[in-house]
Amino acid sequence: MNAPATPTIPLLDLDLLKTLVSIAETGNFSAAAAAVHRTPSAVSMQVKKMEELLGRPVFIRDSRSVELTADGAFLLEHARRMLALNRDAVARFVVPDVQGVVRLGAPDDVAERFLVDMLRRFNESHPQVTVNVTIDGTQRMMDMVHNGVLDLTLITCEAGFKDDDAEVLFREKLVWATCKGGVAAEQKPLPVSVWEEGCAWRKAALEQLDARNIPWRVAFQSAHISGQRAAVLADLAVAPIPVSSIGGDIVETPKHFNLPDLPKYALGLLTTKDPNPAVQAAADHLRASFANR
Fold first, then answer.
1. CA dist., res. 210 & res. 204, Å (int)
2. Which domains does the chain have, with CATH numbers?
3. Using one digit for the tens of pLDDT, what is the confidence trace for 133-154?
4. Contacts from 165-169 at CB under 8 Å and sequence distance 24+?
5. Nearest to 179 by CA among 238, 240, 262
6. Whose CA is closest to 104, among 140, 139, 143, 131?
7. pTM over 0.90
8. Are strands 264-271 and 250-252 parallel, antiparallel or unpaired?
């Protein structure tokens, strides 16, 4: 008896995804049609094809507006990544002469965990582009992009903080970190290591503690993930950190301490208006790099 055939998952054409992104960004079919150099009727047919392929609607349409459904919003996030992967790969061969200076901002933890490898690979594919990196807090880097001091920046968003202009690249759960075998999580009030007001991790953690009526005190403050880890390793405090930062003697606080669950946070990408080719290449490389994670 033959084994049942494995269902074949259909492939989404990049042109369909490009049209999806254009509609989402312009807010209507006519403007999207101009952006992708098609007629409005051709764009409508593309959307119909996409929805038939997926078996569910991606847009809510009326006579005056177009909005993404929840499934459409999910697809938009992945569409941007898939298009960036394609551009990042092709750019290595067809636009190797892109040159210029890119001013990139990033939070401390992102620079430590992700940027080294990403910038190394970007330098290999775009040797004539110089990337100058600024490490700072999310709000200050957002202001620097809006004021023209930075060309693009990675920022912490969601988990109690939101910037409507930021394109989400990556989501990850926050967890309570403690020292392996430590006693900080037993203390009352709970000693926590956080950063200043405005930090998304701080906001998420302290709001959850307050919601559970768990008394707390700020025992350690640091703008750097290395400082947070030092506080945890010294058993001075517990700290809300990304799950990918757990390792070695820094462990997730055991469940029996009954600390509240923390939300996911997101890394967003904020770019200047009308980026030049070097900035666009760097942005696409970041999108592609996080799409592979």
1. 10
2. 14-88 (1.10.10.10), 172-265 (3.40.190.10)
3. 999 888 889 999 999 999 999 9
4. 165/270, 166/268, 166/269, 166/270, 167/80, 167/268, 167/269, 167/270, 167/271, 167/287, 168/77, 168/266, 168/267, 168/268, 169/81, 169/266, 169/267, 169/268, 169/269, 169/286, 169/287, 169/290, 169/291
5. 238
6. 131
7. no
8. unpaired
